[in-house]
Amino acid sequence: MDIRLPPTGTEAHVWGLNPEIVFLNHGSFGACPLAVLEKQAELRRRMEAEPVRFFVRELQDLLDEARSELATFVGADPEGLAFVSNATTGVNTVLASLDFGPGDELLVTNHEYNACRNALNARAVRAEARVVEAVIPFPLKSNDAVIEAVLARVTPRTRLALVDHVTSQTGIVLPIAELTDELENRGIAVLIDGAHAPGMLDLKVDDLGASFYTGNCHKWLCAPKGAAFLWVRKDHRNRIHPLTISHGANAPLGRQSRFHLEFDWVGTDDPTAFLSVPTALRTVGALAEGGWPEVRVRNRALALYGRRILCEQLGIEPPCPDSMIGSLAAIPLPDGSPEPPTSPLYCDPLQDELLFRHGVEVPVIPWPAPPKRLLRISAQLYNSEEQYRYLAEALGSLIGA
Known about the structure:
By secondary structure, the chain is of the alpha/beta class. 40% of the residues lie in helices and 14% in strands. It has a seven-stranded mixed sheet with strand order 2-8-7-6-5-3-4, sandwiched between helices. A three-stranded antiparallel sheet has the order 9-12-11, covered by helices on one side. The chain is globular and about 65 Å long.
């Protein structure tokens, strides 16, 4: 690509990202450091060298060790934490396990991730229940606007609320502790879709008081793809089961709980993504002198910088307060095509132009529906301020801003 790209962040060498691309889309699929990928490869070699020994004699201890380290990091009781492949699976698992009936209401916001919203819609259809949407404005001015919008849609029939911790499309950190407290105190089970929260926020799952929490490890924790967790509060554990029922359903109880027996073995699969999570925690945490707290602070500062530069380029005000931003930020763009995207994973023509003409990988998201759209930036230690300035200039040249 015959263009001069800006410098990367000083820690970019830790990742194996293409140096010919300005990668500002960590939020979609994450990016895994080379040392973590090597750890996963080492685990795979160990598994394939003696599969029976690995699965039958070693795996349970390895899972317990990885679970314990992850649980400590996210502030969760390890007895209620199970590995799943991604947060969408975590949401589907809870919805499939709970009993709903005709007339029940399932509450969700208009910012919910499409895949999880589809899961909620499908569960409501099967149960003859009703999905109720709380419309959170965007742009918005405060946490109070979020809380008011959600509580206004609560009725005596509300059985469950599915709420993002960090919204995927709009990049807002919702006031999840306050929302959970208000809803759970009304007898409404809260399922938190925390896909982006682990590694982005100082997470204390137990303290939130929610019934269920699911989060990805492949995004801001930088673990391999296929690593996520589902946490279930103690009073719900006996009724939450994996989507695949296997040997754990009737295995004799020993040192493992029924909950772990069921979730830890759902058939032959590759568990090395789960087992690599501790290496990811240590690898990324070691990149800053202050460990993970400093990683979070640096990423957030970079996201806020990028948002400010882009808003100045477009001549608009930031669409939400700085206090509602983590390591993601979304900026409204001029309207695009009224046609729906051709792929569920998008690709607005502007996104393609930014990539193929300027070498920038950044998502342009149709939200809430075409022709309305957003540009969403991510910030990770491999990024630099210069990259966001470069994006702003490229964007201005393409849309005339």
